[in-house]
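Here is one chain, start to finish.
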Amino acid sequence: TYIVEVKRSQKGAWQIAGATTTRTFQHTGQTPGQHVIYRVKAQRIGLTSEPSNTTTAYADAAFPLEDNGIE
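Its structure:
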């Protein structure tokens, strides 16, 4: 299982956005104009990996995040 974490600013706290068992994830309901930072952890049999490198997405009103899977 992959645990997807999110924060909305460099100083913000990490929160769980959701989990997936595939390599894609959709994070719906984002506010247009907002930068969102993501990282992923793998979890298996009670063990959790270190977090991945981060990636930043920008929710644009013309290209909202809810229409796009993050791989």
